[in-house]
Design a protein that fits this description.
Blueprint: E1 2-8, E2 12-14, E3 17-26, E4 29-38, H1 50-63, E5 65-73, H2 75-91, E6 99-106, E7 116-120, H3 125-136, E8 145-153, H4 162-177, E9 182-188, H5 197-211, E10 218-222, E11 251-254, H6 260-267, H7 273-276, H8 294-305, H9 320-324, H10 331-347, H11 352-387
Protein backbone atom coordinates (compact mmCIF):
# COMPACT_ATOMS: atom_id res chain seq x y z
CA UNK A 1 0.00 0.00 0.00
CA UNK A 2 1.35 3.42 -0.91
CA UNK A 3 0.38 7.07 -1.14
CA UNK A 4 0.60 8.63 -4.60
CA UNK A 5 0.05 12.11 -6.03
CA UNK A 6 -1.10 13.22 -9.46
CA UNK A 7 -0.12 16.79 -10.43
CA UNK A 8 -1.51 18.52 -13.52
CA UNK A 9 1.06 20.38 -15.60
CA UNK A 10 0.75 23.62 -17.55
CA UNK A 11 -0.24 23.21 -21.17
CA UNK A 12 2.60 23.64 -23.64
CA UNK A 13 1.97 24.89 -27.19
CA UNK A 14 4.65 24.40 -29.81
CA UNK A 15 4.71 23.92 -33.59
CA UNK A 16 0.94 24.13 -33.78
CA UNK A 17 0.34 21.40 -31.19
CA UNK A 18 -0.75 21.47 -27.56
CA UNK A 19 0.71 19.05 -25.01
CA UNK A 20 -1.38 18.42 -21.91
CA UNK A 21 0.34 16.45 -19.15
CA UNK A 22 0.46 15.30 -15.57
CA UNK A 23 3.10 13.90 -13.24
CA UNK A 24 2.39 10.79 -11.18
CA UNK A 25 4.46 10.67 -7.98
CA UNK A 26 4.82 7.24 -6.40
CA UNK A 27 7.29 5.64 -3.98
CA UNK A 28 9.44 4.35 -6.85
CA UNK A 29 9.75 7.80 -8.43
CA UNK A 30 7.96 10.10 -10.87
CA UNK A 31 6.29 9.27 -14.15
CA UNK A 32 4.83 11.65 -16.70
CA UNK A 33 1.69 11.06 -18.73
CA UNK A 34 0.96 13.36 -21.65
CA UNK A 35 -1.35 13.79 -24.63
CA UNK A 36 -0.68 15.98 -27.68
CA UNK A 37 -3.22 17.27 -30.21
CA UNK A 38 -3.22 19.95 -32.91
CA UNK A 39 -3.89 23.43 -31.51
CA UNK A 40 -7.11 23.71 -33.52
CA UNK A 41 -8.68 21.27 -31.04
CA UNK A 42 -7.89 23.47 -28.03
CA UNK A 43 -11.60 24.28 -27.34
CA UNK A 44 -12.34 20.57 -26.89
CA UNK A 45 -9.59 19.91 -24.32
CA UNK A 46 -10.86 19.69 -20.77
CA UNK A 47 -9.24 21.43 -17.81
CA UNK A 48 -10.45 18.60 -15.58
CA UNK A 49 -8.09 15.93 -14.25
CA UNK A 50 -10.56 13.23 -15.32
CA UNK A 51 -8.49 11.91 -18.28
CA UNK A 52 -5.38 11.62 -16.10
CA UNK A 53 -7.24 9.80 -13.33
CA UNK A 54 -8.46 7.33 -15.96
CA UNK A 55 -4.97 7.05 -17.44
CA UNK A 56 -3.29 6.45 -14.06
CA UNK A 57 -5.84 4.03 -12.60
CA UNK A 58 -3.90 0.82 -13.27
CA UNK A 59 -0.67 2.36 -11.96
CA UNK A 60 -2.53 3.21 -8.76
CA UNK A 61 -4.14 -0.24 -8.54
CA UNK A 62 -0.71 -1.84 -8.64
CA UNK A 63 0.04 -0.15 -5.31
CA UNK A 64 -3.29 0.36 -3.56
CA UNK A 65 -3.34 2.97 -0.81
CA UNK A 66 -4.33 6.54 -1.69
CA UNK A 67 -4.08 8.69 -4.82
CA UNK A 68 -4.36 12.44 -4.29
CA UNK A 69 -5.32 14.29 -7.46
CA UNK A 70 -4.24 17.93 -7.43
CA UNK A 71 -6.95 19.34 -9.67
CA UNK A 72 -10.66 19.10 -10.47
CA UNK A 73 -12.16 15.62 -10.66
CA UNK A 74 -15.73 14.67 -11.50
CA UNK A 75 -17.36 13.08 -8.40
CA UNK A 76 -19.53 10.89 -10.63
CA UNK A 77 -16.40 9.52 -12.35
CA UNK A 78 -14.82 8.85 -8.95
CA UNK A 79 -17.91 6.91 -7.95
CA UNK A 80 -17.90 4.82 -11.12
CA UNK A 81 -14.18 4.10 -10.82
CA UNK A 82 -14.73 2.59 -7.38
CA UNK A 83 -16.79 -0.10 -9.13
CA UNK A 84 -14.12 -0.40 -11.84
CA UNK A 85 -11.46 -1.07 -9.21
CA UNK A 86 -13.64 -3.67 -7.56
CA UNK A 87 -14.04 -5.56 -10.83
CA UNK A 88 -10.32 -5.68 -11.60
CA UNK A 89 -9.34 -6.49 -8.02
CA UNK A 90 -11.74 -9.45 -8.20
CA UNK A 91 -10.41 -10.60 -11.57
CA UNK A 92 -6.69 -10.17 -10.75
CA UNK A 93 -6.35 -9.97 -6.94
CA UNK A 94 -2.58 -10.52 -7.01
CA UNK A 95 -1.92 -7.65 -9.42
CA UNK A 96 -4.54 -5.03 -8.56
CA UNK A 97 -5.76 -3.55 -5.29
CA UNK A 98 -8.48 -0.96 -4.65
CA UNK A 99 -7.24 2.49 -3.69
CA UNK A 100 -8.79 5.67 -2.34
CA UNK A 101 -9.05 8.72 -4.61
CA UNK A 102 -8.82 12.11 -2.91
CA UNK A 103 -9.41 15.11 -5.18
CA UNK A 104 -8.21 18.61 -4.44
CA UNK A 105 -11.57 19.76 -5.81
CA UNK A 106 -14.60 17.63 -6.70
CA UNK A 107 -16.29 19.41 -9.55
CA UNK A 108 -18.59 18.05 -12.25
CA UNK A 109 -17.62 19.60 -15.62
CA UNK A 110 -20.36 21.34 -17.52
CA UNK A 111 -21.57 19.18 -20.44
CA UNK A 112 -20.45 20.34 -23.86
CA UNK A 113 -23.15 22.34 -25.63
CA UNK A 114 -23.44 19.95 -28.56
CA UNK A 115 -24.95 16.61 -29.54
CA UNK A 116 -21.67 15.46 -31.12
CA UNK A 117 -19.92 12.29 -29.94
CA UNK A 118 -16.32 11.17 -30.46
CA UNK A 119 -14.68 7.73 -30.72
CA UNK A 120 -11.17 6.27 -30.85
CA UNK A 121 -10.64 5.19 -34.48
CA UNK A 122 -7.97 2.68 -35.50
CA UNK A 123 -9.19 1.98 -39.03
CA UNK A 124 -9.87 -1.69 -38.24
CA UNK A 125 -13.07 -3.71 -38.58
CA UNK A 126 -14.48 -2.88 -35.13
CA UNK A 127 -13.99 0.88 -35.29
CA UNK A 128 -15.09 1.02 -38.95
CA UNK A 129 -18.28 -0.84 -38.09
CA UNK A 130 -19.08 1.50 -35.20
CA UNK A 131 -18.48 4.59 -37.34
CA UNK A 132 -20.46 3.16 -40.28
CA UNK A 133 -23.50 2.01 -38.36
CA UNK A 134 -23.88 5.21 -36.36
CA UNK A 135 -23.33 7.48 -39.36
CA UNK A 136 -25.68 5.52 -41.65
CA UNK A 137 -28.44 4.80 -39.13
CA UNK A 138 -27.99 1.04 -38.83
CA UNK A 139 -28.62 1.56 -35.12
CA UNK A 140 -31.71 3.49 -33.99
CA UNK A 141 -32.44 4.23 -30.33
CA UNK A 142 -28.78 3.75 -29.36
CA UNK A 143 -27.51 5.94 -32.18
CA UNK A 144 -24.84 8.49 -31.27
CA UNK A 145 -24.11 11.60 -33.30
CA UNK A 146 -20.56 10.56 -34.11
CA UNK A 147 -18.65 13.51 -35.57
CA UNK A 148 -14.97 12.66 -34.99
CA UNK A 149 -12.50 9.82 -34.55
CA UNK A 150 -9.30 10.04 -32.49
CA UNK A 151 -6.38 8.40 -34.30
CA UNK A 152 -3.79 7.72 -31.61
CA UNK A 153 -0.03 7.67 -32.13
CA UNK A 154 1.56 5.64 -29.33
CA UNK A 155 -0.89 2.74 -29.07
CA UNK A 156 -0.57 0.15 -31.86
CA UNK A 157 1.88 2.39 -33.73
CA UNK A 158 4.83 3.28 -31.43
CA UNK A 159 5.90 6.90 -31.05
CA UNK A 160 9.21 5.99 -32.68
CA UNK A 161 7.44 5.14 -35.98
CA UNK A 162 6.38 8.60 -37.11
CA UNK A 163 6.38 7.75 -40.83
CA UNK A 164 4.12 4.71 -40.30
CA UNK A 165 1.72 6.83 -38.26
CA UNK A 166 1.57 9.51 -40.95
CA UNK A 167 0.92 6.90 -43.63
CA UNK A 168 -1.80 5.17 -41.62
CA UNK A 169 -3.45 8.47 -40.72
CA UNK A 170 -4.03 9.23 -44.41
CA UNK A 171 -6.19 6.12 -44.78
CA UNK A 172 -8.02 6.76 -41.52
CA UNK A 173 -8.70 10.37 -42.49
CA UNK A 174 -10.07 9.35 -45.89
CA UNK A 175 -12.33 6.75 -44.30
CA UNK A 176 -13.80 9.19 -41.79
CA UNK A 177 -14.13 12.05 -44.25
CA UNK A 178 -16.20 9.84 -46.54
CA UNK A 179 -18.88 9.56 -43.84
CA UNK A 180 -18.65 13.17 -42.68
CA UNK A 181 -16.40 12.70 -39.64
CA UNK A 182 -13.26 14.57 -38.60
CA UNK A 183 -10.00 12.83 -37.79
CA UNK A 184 -8.30 14.09 -34.63
CA UNK A 185 -4.58 13.18 -34.53
CA UNK A 186 -3.44 12.51 -30.97
CA UNK A 187 -0.11 11.35 -29.57
CA UNK A 188 0.47 9.99 -26.07
CA UNK A 189 3.14 8.25 -24.02
CA UNK A 190 0.53 6.16 -22.20
CA UNK A 191 2.29 2.89 -23.04
CA UNK A 192 5.36 4.01 -21.10
CA UNK A 193 3.36 3.56 -17.90
CA UNK A 194 3.54 0.22 -16.13
CA UNK A 195 0.83 -2.17 -17.21
CA UNK A 196 -0.13 -5.15 -19.36
CA UNK A 197 -1.67 -3.73 -22.55
CA UNK A 198 -4.25 -6.54 -22.58
CA UNK A 199 -5.52 -5.18 -19.24
CA UNK A 200 -5.04 -1.43 -19.61
CA UNK A 201 -6.07 -0.60 -23.18
CA UNK A 202 -9.69 0.15 -22.23
CA UNK A 203 -8.46 2.76 -19.74
CA UNK A 204 -6.14 4.13 -22.43
CA UNK A 205 -9.02 4.62 -24.86
CA UNK A 206 -11.25 6.15 -22.20
CA UNK A 207 -8.56 8.62 -21.12
CA UNK A 208 -8.24 9.91 -24.71
CA UNK A 209 -12.00 10.39 -24.92
CA UNK A 210 -12.19 12.16 -21.56
CA UNK A 211 -9.48 14.58 -22.66
CA UNK A 212 -11.83 15.97 -25.34
CA UNK A 213 -15.00 16.14 -23.27
CA UNK A 214 -14.96 19.93 -23.59
CA UNK A 215 -16.04 19.61 -27.22
CA UNK A 216 -18.15 16.46 -27.29
CA UNK A 217 -21.18 15.22 -25.39
CA UNK A 218 -20.26 11.51 -25.26
CA UNK A 219 -17.57 8.98 -26.12
CA UNK A 220 -17.99 5.66 -27.93
CA UNK A 221 -15.58 2.71 -27.71
CA UNK A 222 -15.85 0.09 -30.45
CA UNK A 223 -15.95 -3.39 -28.91
CA UNK A 224 -13.51 -6.12 -29.89
CA UNK A 225 -15.56 -9.19 -28.97
CA UNK A 226 -19.24 -10.02 -29.26
CA UNK A 227 -21.30 -11.17 -26.30
CA UNK A 228 -21.02 -14.76 -27.59
CA UNK A 229 -17.26 -14.81 -27.05
CA UNK A 230 -16.74 -12.48 -24.10
CA UNK A 231 -14.00 -13.55 -21.72
CA UNK A 232 -12.89 -11.77 -18.58
CA UNK A 233 -10.62 -10.14 -17.76
CA UNK A 234 -9.98 -8.16 -20.92
CA UNK A 235 -9.09 -4.47 -20.98
CA UNK A 236 -11.98 -3.19 -23.10
CA UNK A 237 -15.36 -4.83 -22.52
CA UNK A 238 -19.06 -3.92 -22.21
CA UNK A 239 -18.95 -4.17 -18.40
CA UNK A 240 -16.10 -1.86 -17.42
CA UNK A 241 -15.75 0.56 -20.37
CA UNK A 242 -18.93 2.32 -19.29
CA UNK A 243 -17.47 2.80 -15.79
CA UNK A 244 -15.30 5.59 -17.20
CA UNK A 245 -18.48 7.65 -17.66
CA UNK A 246 -19.37 10.75 -15.70
CA UNK A 247 -22.70 12.52 -15.45
CA UNK A 248 -21.54 15.10 -17.98
CA UNK A 249 -19.69 12.74 -20.36
CA UNK A 250 -21.06 9.19 -20.77
CA UNK A 251 -18.91 6.58 -22.48
CA UNK A 252 -20.58 3.76 -24.39
CA UNK A 253 -19.26 0.37 -25.47
CA UNK A 254 -20.51 -0.38 -28.97
CA UNK A 255 -20.84 -3.46 -31.17
CA UNK A 256 -20.84 -6.36 -28.71
CA UNK A 257 -24.23 -7.38 -30.06
CA UNK A 258 -22.78 -8.04 -33.53
CA UNK A 259 -20.52 -10.93 -34.61
CA UNK A 260 -17.31 -9.97 -36.45
CA UNK A 261 -18.58 -11.75 -39.56
CA UNK A 262 -21.64 -9.52 -39.61
CA UNK A 263 -19.49 -6.45 -38.95
CA UNK A 264 -17.41 -7.40 -41.98
CA UNK A 265 -20.55 -7.83 -44.07
CA UNK A 266 -21.80 -4.38 -43.05
CA UNK A 267 -18.62 -2.45 -43.80
CA UNK A 268 -18.25 -4.00 -47.24
CA UNK A 269 -21.01 -1.56 -48.22
CA UNK A 270 -18.60 1.30 -47.33
CA UNK A 271 -16.67 1.81 -50.61
CA UNK A 272 -13.54 3.32 -48.99
CA UNK A 273 -13.04 0.27 -46.77
CA UNK A 274 -11.76 -1.78 -49.73
CA UNK A 275 -8.73 0.51 -49.99
CA UNK A 276 -8.14 1.91 -46.51
CA UNK A 277 -9.07 -0.78 -43.96
CA UNK A 278 -6.06 -1.41 -41.68
CA UNK A 279 -6.23 -4.31 -39.23
CA UNK A 280 -2.55 -5.14 -38.73
CA UNK A 281 -0.33 -4.29 -35.77
CA UNK A 282 2.31 -7.01 -36.20
CA UNK A 283 3.91 -6.23 -39.55
CA UNK A 284 7.18 -4.40 -40.19
CA UNK A 285 5.28 -1.53 -41.87
CA UNK A 286 2.45 -0.50 -39.59
CA UNK A 287 0.71 1.77 -42.08
CA UNK A 288 -0.52 -1.27 -44.04
CA UNK A 289 -1.63 -4.86 -43.65
CA UNK A 290 1.16 -7.44 -43.67
CA UNK A 291 -1.28 -10.13 -44.91
CA UNK A 292 0.55 -12.85 -42.94
CA UNK A 293 -0.12 -12.29 -39.23
CA UNK A 294 -3.03 -14.03 -37.53
CA UNK A 295 -5.11 -10.86 -37.37
CA UNK A 296 -4.66 -10.05 -41.05
CA UNK A 297 -5.35 -13.58 -42.16
CA UNK A 298 -8.44 -14.07 -40.01
CA UNK A 299 -9.98 -10.88 -41.43
CA UNK A 300 -9.07 -11.98 -44.96
CA UNK A 301 -10.94 -15.24 -44.34
CA UNK A 302 -14.10 -13.44 -43.24
CA UNK A 303 -14.04 -11.25 -46.34
CA UNK A 304 -13.39 -14.29 -48.54
CA UNK A 305 -16.56 -15.88 -47.20
CA UNK A 306 -18.43 -12.70 -48.10
CA UNK A 307 -17.15 -12.80 -51.67
CA UNK A 308 -14.47 -10.10 -51.32
CA UNK A 309 -11.49 -12.21 -52.29
CA UNK A 310 -9.13 -9.51 -53.56
CA UNK A 311 -9.45 -6.32 -51.50
CA UNK A 312 -7.01 -3.52 -52.28
CA UNK A 313 -6.09 -3.09 -48.60
CA UNK A 314 -4.73 -6.66 -48.56
CA UNK A 315 -1.91 -6.27 -51.06
CA UNK A 316 -1.15 -9.97 -51.38
CA UNK A 317 -3.17 -13.11 -50.97
CA UNK A 318 -2.30 -16.20 -48.94
CA UNK A 319 -1.97 -19.65 -50.49
CA UNK A 320 -3.34 -22.90 -49.09
CA UNK A 321 0.21 -24.05 -48.38
CA UNK A 322 0.89 -20.91 -46.34
CA UNK A 323 -2.37 -21.43 -44.45
CA UNK A 324 -1.37 -24.99 -43.51
CA UNK A 325 2.05 -23.82 -42.31
CA UNK A 326 0.76 -20.98 -40.11
CA UNK A 327 1.90 -21.15 -36.48
CA UNK A 328 -0.36 -19.72 -33.79
CA UNK A 329 1.03 -18.05 -30.71
CA UNK A 330 -1.44 -19.47 -28.18
CA UNK A 331 -4.70 -21.29 -27.66
CA UNK A 332 -6.68 -18.05 -28.15
CA UNK A 333 -5.47 -17.80 -31.73
CA UNK A 334 -6.52 -21.40 -32.31
CA UNK A 335 -9.97 -20.62 -30.92
CA UNK A 336 -10.20 -17.60 -33.20
CA UNK A 337 -9.54 -19.79 -36.24
CA UNK A 338 -12.00 -22.40 -34.98
CA UNK A 339 -14.68 -19.70 -34.87
CA UNK A 340 -13.92 -18.92 -38.52
CA UNK A 341 -14.34 -22.60 -39.37
CA UNK A 342 -17.66 -22.56 -37.53
CA UNK A 343 -18.87 -19.60 -39.62
CA UNK A 344 -17.67 -21.31 -42.82
CA UNK A 345 -19.67 -24.42 -41.93
CA UNK A 346 -22.77 -22.36 -41.10
CA UNK A 347 -22.48 -20.42 -44.36
CA UNK A 348 -21.86 -23.55 -46.42
CA UNK A 349 -18.40 -22.45 -47.58
CA UNK A 350 -16.51 -25.49 -48.89
CA UNK A 351 -13.58 -23.95 -50.72
CA UNK A 352 -10.11 -25.46 -50.55
CA UNK A 353 -8.81 -22.79 -48.15
CA UNK A 354 -11.32 -24.00 -45.54
CA UNK A 355 -9.78 -27.47 -45.68
CA UNK A 356 -6.31 -25.94 -45.43
CA UNK A 357 -7.38 -23.95 -42.37
CA UNK A 358 -8.85 -27.06 -40.76
CA UNK A 359 -5.50 -28.85 -41.22
CA UNK A 360 -3.66 -25.81 -39.86
CA UNK A 361 -5.77 -25.77 -36.70
CA UNK A 362 -5.23 -29.50 -36.18
CA UNK A 363 -1.44 -29.21 -36.60
CA UNK A 364 -1.26 -26.31 -34.17
CA UNK A 365 -3.36 -28.13 -31.59
CA UNK A 366 -1.00 -31.11 -31.83
CA UNK A 367 2.00 -28.80 -31.53
CA UNK A 368 0.63 -27.18 -28.38
CA UNK A 369 -0.15 -30.58 -26.86
CA UNK A 370 3.40 -31.74 -27.61
CA UNK A 371 5.07 -28.57 -26.34
CA UNK A 372 4.44 -29.11 -22.61
CA UNK A 373 5.33 -32.79 -23.02
CA UNK A 374 8.67 -31.85 -24.57
CA UNK A 375 9.26 -29.33 -21.81
CA UNK A 376 8.56 -31.98 -19.17
CA UNK A 377 10.91 -34.40 -20.92
CA UNK A 378 13.70 -31.80 -21.01
CA UNK A 379 13.12 -31.08 -17.32
CA UNK A 380 13.40 -34.78 -16.46
CA UNK A 381 16.57 -35.09 -18.51
CA UNK A 382 18.11 -32.08 -16.77
CA UNK A 383 17.28 -33.52 -13.35
CA UNK A 384 18.71 -36.85 -14.42
CA UNK A 385 21.99 -35.27 -15.57
CA UNK A 386 22.27 -33.27 -12.36
CA UNK A 387 22.01 -36.30 -10.14
CA UNK A 388 23.67 -38.85 -12.43
CA UNK A 389 26.48 -40.75 -10.73
CA UNK A 390 25.61 -39.58 -7.24
CA UNK A 391 25.70 -42.47 -4.81
CA UNK A 392 23.13 -42.69 -2.11
CA UNK A 393 24.35 -41.23 1.20
CA UNK A 394 25.48 -43.93 3.67
CA UNK A 395 23.23 -44.44 6.65
CA UNK A 396 24.19 -42.56 9.81
CA UNK A 397 26.24 -44.58 12.35
CA UNK A 398 25.54 -44.56 16.07
CA UNK A 399 28.36 -43.16 18.15
Amino acid sequence: MANMDLWLQEWVESDGRITVGAVIEQPQGRQSLWYRVPAEWRPAITRSADPFLAGAIFVAMHHGGRLTVHGDVSPSLMRNLEEFQGAWAAWRPKEYHPFEVVAERECEPAPAQTTASVMPFSGGVDSCFTAWRHRTGLVTRRRCDLRAGIFVHGFDIPLSKAADYEGASVGAKNLLASVGMDLIPMATNFRELKGDWEDVHGAALASCLLLLQGGYRAGVIAGSFGYTYLAFPYGSNPMTDVMFSSNSFPIYHDGADIHRFEKSRAILKWPEVDKYLRVCWAGTQLDRNCCRCQKCVSNMFYFRMLGAKQMECFERNISNREIVLMRYADIQEIKSMQRILGVAKREGVKESWVTALRVSVLLNRLRMIARPRRAMQRWKQAIGRRFAGRAAAPPAMDA
